[in-house]
């Protein structure tokens, strides 16, 4: 009987012939610790008690991203602690102020097809766009991983999601994943793998594919996987990565569920307060007044996100009285968007450009919402209190929808744009 990508990757990393449901010790190729759930939580305290220390520091990546730039002394202390801990243990792969960890992991070449990448952040699953078994784990589990170089995992069953057809103009990958979440639900894929295939997936850039795998966890999924194709190969070559073993699901692999969608008939989607699966067509919600628009995060702050937003606002001004915050998902995206003029176009429209950070997305600093305010955001979570006041409302949408809406100060359908 054929195997899925998950079964093949975990079989290779365990040395066993595994199938969905099996539990096995699996070697971990890259362990990512972020500043919020990394060293400062149990790990620094208990690691010295383990005779092993860190099994292989080359496999450990530490990224300060939630508290950078620090907005309080406490946050600065956490970043300093994370930095000092990494230095004490000789960890070369330490990054700070570079942007959200998942974007940094991909950009710095730490996510490789056919490998197991585990991180102390739930959106680690974004790495599945590069054909890696990438997933979030807790701090205690991470302590075991860095000291043993392995962990035990149950091989997940796989839900196959096929997106056929081709996206209409201004309909994006974010709309595809919001529509998928609407059908599967915020817990419908608990401990499953979701494999995304189809012409509309293949047509996406790697940047855009990452918006989809990033939100696999918003359906409860362990991993979100996509095939390694020539676009992924080019992305990796650009990072100097040429040798790896990519795995592909067999034609006769077994799936626990198969969902098929048509991208050609998809319209812009929006997740309404206060659940990520409270998804509706924008045209059913539009005209709702919005106070703050946010273009950023590891879900919607990549270059192609900024570029489509800049193309929409070019030569225009955002609505009076609203805020349009833009935070590139990494330092290198910031540089590229600065050099290309994309950031300048956004700024000229009235956007406020912020440093690459998690802060706005997770309500730790920058862009906090006051009571009764509404935010339309390209990020991935909209639960109560996520971005500031518990009396604020957060709507999740694509970069095109956020940009088109910022021009009007209300939720607007980008497909209504007159060229
Ligand atoms: C690390 C943690 C605070 C959280 C996560 O694990 O995803 C955060 O990054 C988020 O997006 O909610
Ligand atoms: S940008 Fe948001 S979703 Fe991504 S890692 Fe940071 S806090 Fe989490």
TrEMBL record:
UniProt cofactor note: Binds 1 [4Fe-4S] cluster per subunit.
Gene Ontology process terms (BP): L-leucine biosynthetic process
Entry's Gene Ontology molecular function annotations: 3-isopropylmalate dehydratase activity; 4 iron, 4 sulfur cluster binding; metal ion binding
Cofactors required: [4Fe-4S] cluster
Catalytic reactions of this protein: (2R,3S)-3-isopropylmalate = (2S)-2-isopropylmalate
Binding site for [4Fe-4S] cluster: 298, 358, 361
Keyword annotations: 4Fe-4S, Amino-acid biosynthesis, Branched-chain amino acid biosynthesis, Iron, Iron-sulfur, Leucine biosynthesis, Lyase, Metal-binding
Aconitase/3-isopropylmalate dehydratase large subunit alpha/beta/alpha domain boundaries: 71-284
Any one Pfam family match given in the protein's UniProt record, by short name: Aconitase
Recorded superkingdom: Bacteria
Enzymatic class: lyase
EC number(s) on file: 4.2.1.33
Family recorded in the similarity comment: Belongs to the aconitase/IPM isomerase family. LeuC type 2 subfamily.
Protein's job: Catalyzes the isomerization between 2-isopropylmalate and 3-isopropylmalate, via the formation of 2-isopropylmaleate.
Subunit structure: Heterodimer of LeuC and LeuD.
Name of the protein in question: 3-isopropylmalate dehydratase large subunit
């Amino acid at each position: 009987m054929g195997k899925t990508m998950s079964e093949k990757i975990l079989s290779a990393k365990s040395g066993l012939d595994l199938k969905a449901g099996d539990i096995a010790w699996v070697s971990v190729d890259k362990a990512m610790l972020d500043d919020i759930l990394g060293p400062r939580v149990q790990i620094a305290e208990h690691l010295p008690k383990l005779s092993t220390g860190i099994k292989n520091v080359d496999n450990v990546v530490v990224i300060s991203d939630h508290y950078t730039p620090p907005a309080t002394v406490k946050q600065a202390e956490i970043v300093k602690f994370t930095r000092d801990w990494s230095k004490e243990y000789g960890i070369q792969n330490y990054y700070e102020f570079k942007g959200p960890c998942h974007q940094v992991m991909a950009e710095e070449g730490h996510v490789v097809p056919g490998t197991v990448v585990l991180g102390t952040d739930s959106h680690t699953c974004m790495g599945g766009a590069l054909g890696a078994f990438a997933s979030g784990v807790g701090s205690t589990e991470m302590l075991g991983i860095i000291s043993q170089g392995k962990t035990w995992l149950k091989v997940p069953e796989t839900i196959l999601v096929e997106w056929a057809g081709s996206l209409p103009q201004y309909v994006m990958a974010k709309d595809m994943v919001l529509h998928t979440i609407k059908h599967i639900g915020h817990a419908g894929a608990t401990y499953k793998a979701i494999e995304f295939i189809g012409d509309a997936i293949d047509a996406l850039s790697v940047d855009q594919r990452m918006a989809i795998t990033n939100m696999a966890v918003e359906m409860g999924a362990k991993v979100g996987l996509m095939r390694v194709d020539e676009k992924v190969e080019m992305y990796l070559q650009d990072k100097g990565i040429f040798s790896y073993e990519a795995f592909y699901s067999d034609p006769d692999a077994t799936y626990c569920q198969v969902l098929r969608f048509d991208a050609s008939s998809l319209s812009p989607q929006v997740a309404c307060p206060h659940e990520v699966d409270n998804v509706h067509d924008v045209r059913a919600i539009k005209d709702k007044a919005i106070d703050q628009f946010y273009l950023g995060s590891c879900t919607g702050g990549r270059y192609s996100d900024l570029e489509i937003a800049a193309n929409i606002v070019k030569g225009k001004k955002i609505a009076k009285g609203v805020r349009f915050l833009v935070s590139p998902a990494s330092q290198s995206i910031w540089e590229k968007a600065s050099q290309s003029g994309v950031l300048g176009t956004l700024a000229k429209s009235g956007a406020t450009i912020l440093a690459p950070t998690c802060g706005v997305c997770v309500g730790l600093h920058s862009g906090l919402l006051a009571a009764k305010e509404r935010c339309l955001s390209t990020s991935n979570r909209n639960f109560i209190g996520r971005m500031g006041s518990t009396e604020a409302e957060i709507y999740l949408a694509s970069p095109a929808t956020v940009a088109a809406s910022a021009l009007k100060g209300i939720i607007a359908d980008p497909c209504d744009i007159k060229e």
